[in-house]
Automatic annotation (TrEMBL):
<keyword id="KW-0670">Pyruvate</keyword>
<dbReference type="GO" id="GO:0008903">
    <property type="term" value="F:hydroxypyruvate isomerase activity"/>
</dbReference>
<feature type="active site" description="Proton donor/acceptor">
    <location>
        <position position="240"/>
    </location>
</feature>
<comment type="similarity">
    <text>Belongs to the hyi family.</text>
</comment>
<dbReference type="InterPro" id="IPR013022">
    <property type="entry name" value="Xyl_isomerase-like_TIM-brl"/>
</dbReference>
<dbReference type="InterPro" id="IPR036237">
    <property type="entry name" value="Xyl_isomerase-like_sf"/>
</dbReference>
<dbReference type="InterPro" id="IPR026040">
    <property type="entry name" value="HyI-like"/>
</dbReference>
<dbReference type="GO" id="GO:0046487">
    <property type="term" value="P:glyoxylate metabolic process"/>
</dbReference>
<feature type="active site" description="Proton donor/acceptor">
    <location>
        <position position="143"/>
    </location>
</feature>
<keyword id="KW-0413">Isomerase</keyword>
<protein>
    <submittedName>
        <fullName>Hydroxypyruvate isomerase</fullName>
    </submittedName>
</protein>
<dbReference type="Pfam" id="PF01261">
    <property type="entry name" value="AP_endonuc_2"/>
</dbReference>
<dbReference type="InterPro" id="IPR053398">
    <property type="entry name" value="HPT_OtnI_isomerases"/>
</dbReference>
<feature type="domain" description="Xylose isomerase-like TIM barrel">
    <location>
        <begin position="21"/>
        <end position="256"/>
    </location>
</feature>
<dbReference type="InterPro" id="IPR050417">
    <property type="entry name" value="Sugar_Epim/Isomerase"/>
</dbReference>
C-alpha cells in the first residue's frame, strides 16, 4: 500500500504554514513534504515534526529570485557558486530534519539560450550534490515540470529526466515521478511506470487537468497505486494537489489508505 505524504505547500492552506503539520497529522498523514523549509529555523520545523509524529520526506533546493522568473539556479551557467550554496544549505536542513530526499531545482532555460550548456551545468552541479549527500544516505531527485506549469524548465518529459539521471551516473540520483506532469507531457502512464521502474525514488500525484484531488480527471489513480504496489515501489507518494475546497472535505480518496 502506498505511503502518502501530505504536501504542506498546497494542502491545509486554510491555516498558517506551521499549523499545517498538526492539521496533516489529525487528518491521518504520517509523512509530509513541502517546497521550501528555509523561511523557518531548523529547530522549529524539527519540533513540529516531532510533536506531531510526522516524518519529513522531501523538500527542494531554494528557488532563487522567483519574481525574476527563477525556479532554481543549478542549471544556469555562471551560477555554480549559488547552486553549491543552495545545495549545502539543503544538506544542512536535510540532516537536521532527517529527510531522506532532496529535489534539486534546475531552473529555466530562456528561449534562444544554449540548452546543451545548461544541461552540462546541471549535470556538474548535481554530481557535486550527489557526492556531498552520498555519505549521509540522502537521495537526490530530479523532476520534469510540464510547460503549462513552468515554461522552459530544463526538463519537461520524464525521458529527459531519465537521460539526465543516467548521464549523472551516481547511485543516489533518481527521477521524481510526478504523474501530473507526466500525464501532461508523456502520457502512457502504466508503461512509463515500468520504463522508469528502479529509476524513480519519489512519486507525486494530482488530478489532470485541474491539479486537484486524485479522484477526478484523466488519471485513474487507483490503477496507478495498484501498479506501484505491483512493481514493489517502496518510496513515498506526495499529495501535491490544490484541494477543490477545504482540504479535509476532499480526503475521501485517502480513507482506504490510512
Ligand atoms: O511543481 C512541482 O511539481 C514540484 O514538485 C515542485 O516542488 C517544484 O516545482
Ligand atoms: Mg511535483
Amino acid at each position: 500500500m502506498p505511503k502518502f505524504a501530505a504536501n504542506l505547500s498546497m494542502m491545509f492552506t486554510e491555516v498558517p504554514f506551521l499549523a499545517r503539520f498538526e492539521a496533516a497529522a489529525k487528518a491521518g498523514f504520517k509523512y509530509v513534504e513541502y517546497l521550501f523549509p528555509y523561511d523557518y529555523p531548523k529547530d522549529v520545523l524539527k519540533t513540529k515534526l516531532q510533536d506531531n509524529d510526522l516524518q519529513q520526506v522531501l523538500f527542494n533546493t531554494a528557488a532563487g529570485d522567483v519574481q525574476a522568473g527563477e525556479w532554481g539556479v543549478s542549471a544556469i551557467p555562471g551560477r555554480e557558486a549559488d547552486s553549491h550554496r543552495d545545495i549545502d544549505l539543503a544538506l544542512e536542513y536535510a540532516l537536521a530534519l532527517n529527510c531522506p530526499n532532496v529535489h534539486i531545482m534546475s531552473g529555466v532555460v530562456p528561449p534562444g539560450e544554449n540548452y546543451a550548456k545548461y544541461k552540462q551545468t546541471f549535470i556538474d552541479n548535481v554530481r557535486y550534490a550527489a557526492d556531498k549527500f552520498q555519505p549521509h544516505g540522502i537521495k537526490i531527485l530530479l523532476e520534469a515540470l510540464s510547460p503549462q506549469v513552468k515554461p522552459n524548465y530544463l526538463t519537461a518529459s520524464q525521458f529527459q529526466t531519465l537521460e539526465l539521471v543516467d548521464l549523472i551516473d551516481r547511485d543516489n540520483v533518481f527521477v521524481q515521478l510526478d504523474y501530473f506532469h507526466a500525464q501532461n507531457v508523456d502520457g502512457n502512464l502504466t508503461r512509463l511506470t515500468d520504463t522508469l521502474n528502479g529509476k524513480f525514488a519519489h512519486v507525486q500525484i494530482a488530478s489532470v487537468p485541474e491539479r486537484h484531488e486524485p479522484d477526478e480527471g484523466e488519471i485513474n489513480y487507483r490503477h496507478i497505486f495498484d501498479k506501484l504496489d505491483e512493481i514493489g515501489y517502496e518510496g513515498w507518494v506526495g499529495c501535491e494537489y490544490n484541494p477543490r475546497g477545504k482540504t479535509t472535505d476532499g480526503l475521501g480518496w485517502f480513507k482506504p489508505y490510512k
